User: Fold this.
Amino acid sequence: MIASVRGPVRHVGLDHVIVEVGGVGLLVHTTPATAAECRTGTEVTLETTLVVREESLTLYGFRGADAKALFEQVQTVSGVGPRLALAMLSVHAPDVVRRALAQGDLATLTKVPGIGKKSAERLVLELKDKILAVGVDPADLAVRPDDAPADDGVLGQVREALEGLGWSSKQAADAVTRVTKADDAPTGVSEILRAALRELGR
Assistant:
């Protein structure tokens, strides 16, 4: 098991980074917010989980142990794989997910693409007591300020990333349109993506 990685960032994508460890570049899948915090050439430390499949080895990375623990915990529920677990953490902060599970807040859980009412009910049923045992910390979920209109190449990348996370092309396009029409609209790919994720999570 690869529990963590540390090294210089060689590449930053919308939902992944490549970290050089011992001369080897490791592709680590992350949430868009985590990827946006990384900078090429700077050193990063990520808590990681290695998902082993017959045909692949996939590494998922997180800024903190809390997000990693939740990523692994939600996958104990039938029907929840790493992709859906990562989508949950892309839409909501770990504390928001924990609070929703502890309080049976289905509306919050179903804002994640791929989670319907029945899936949300199953998550609450199987994890409510475990989440309460961990404790729900109402941390400060401050929204980072965004900076303002971007070209269609940038918007296309954001729409593609949102569709990759499970939203329909119409939902992705509508969210991007809403956030880029604002007076203080963000301009960078990662900033627009974060804003669109918040918009879709409303």
About this structure: The first strand starts at residue 4 and ends at 12. Residues 65-134 form a domain with the DNA polymerase; domain 1 fold (CATH 1.10.150.20). The chain has nine helices and five strands.
